[in-house]
């Protein structure tokens, strides 16, 4: 089953990704100023899957990707795929499992994993 993962970019804005059951990113959302906006947008996307438009493209280096459009707004961009078949499998995975996908919030940064060495990591 796919999972939505919320994280924070180095620039301080939030984003979410849909990852496959194998942990590969299927698509990445646009940027959001606040974390709760990601959660709201995920729910909006889940409810709008039947209206989702997938625009397929081929990059200059021959990789395939798609842009997701919902209610005339681009909401996400897929990762790059080596074949059109793999691209279609990514779209199929979205349609099959995004509506039931759980949401994981990794935006808090270093608090996600416990300190196994007994001391704080120094930057």
TrEMBL record:
Pfam family, one: DUF1508
Signal peptide: none
DUF1508 domain segment(s): 61-105
InterPro entries in the cross-refs: DUF1508, YegP-like_sf
Name listed for the protein in its UniProt record: DUF1508 domain-containing protein
UniProt source species: Flavobacterium chuncheonense
